[in-house]
Amino acid sequence: MTSAARVGDPIEHSEALNGLLLGLAVGAAAVVVAAAVGVSIVASGGLAAVAVVGAVVSLSAGVGELIGSLSYCTNTAGHISKGSSNVFINGRPAARAHLDTAECDKHGQVPQVIAEGSSTVYINGQPAARVGDRTICDGKISAGSDNVYIGGETEQTDDINPEVPGWLHGVVLGIGFGSAVVLTSWATAIVGFIGGAMGGYGGGVIGGRRYGEGSDEQKVMAFGGAFIGGSLAGKGQQWFDSRYEFKTQGLGSLFGNIKVVPKSIQATFGHAKSTDYRKTFFEEYPDQRGKVIVHHAVEQQVEKFYPGLVKSEELHSIENLRGIPKELNSKLHLSAIRKEWNRFYSQNKSPTKQQLLDKATEIDKIYGSQFTPPIEE
């Protein structure tokens, strides 16, 4: 049961739109400051730097919108100006959906129709408006009668223009999704998007049942669910990609020829965001700091023997880095692996990039089980 709405009762708007715009500005400013102090991932330039900017800006916009939508960021924006001519509540005309209007400071002199009301209580043939029901400009009725309450679910009679336009949500979502594609992969971005949608829906449902529909707690739980769901799904996809692959010999009538199999060992290059390869490795595997020596699968000496064959960002990418336990470094890298590469250099005066990767793959298959993390079939 919710308080009945009458002529003169206030409507309010949140600061969701202003919060989103402020979040965009704060995110952009943070990136500028980071670039000014020389944060490597931004200073490296290129598409990756643009993607980082997009990721930061889209996240800060989402946080800004969330904060702006909370109850303590709402403000009175007008009042109900028209009501029933023959039904009164506490001596004031009762407010009805579809028929009655409110004045809103954010929309000048244009009356804003009340767009929601009770699904079970009607006044003059239209749903009775209550506290919490919205106008077509997405303003909410924020106060009503102290002693007259109206029940029922919410019935919407008119289209509501959201405080944050759908196209703006689409732009922010597109920026975030595009950044995820550049920084990870299409598969990871898509799975992360699906995980985020499911997490947000689940958080919203749980928060709504526990704290009430439209409550601050529900909004926070929906946002948190989306963030956690998207992060976990994306990480899960990366974990799957690093270990398994799909094999097929034709799709078959029921897709029975598609199989998930462990990924075969194959050395590859990525695109490093920094030339500090040790930092790159330990950011990916922080628990190995102090335990391993970081080496390259296709080692750095190729720059001396074959100038220009391998780009620096390929050589120092995480895909080309290997961790060798300190206690094995002398025996494994300085002896066994060094002999393998010295033999390769003496036998191949003008190899292709693929030949370098094939040699690294061969070494991974022989010694990879001793690396940290291990590389195994």
TrEMBL record:
InterPro entries: PAAR_motif, prePAAR_DddA. Keywords: Membrane, Transmembrane, Transmembrane helix. The keyword Transmembrane helix applies. The keyword Signal does not apply. Residues 2-61 form the Double-stranded DNA deaminase toxin A prePAAR motif domain. It holds the Pfam family prePAAR_I. It comes from the Bacteria. The chain crosses the membrane at residues 20-42, 49-72. This is PAAR domain-containing protein. It comes from Pseudomonas syringae USA007.
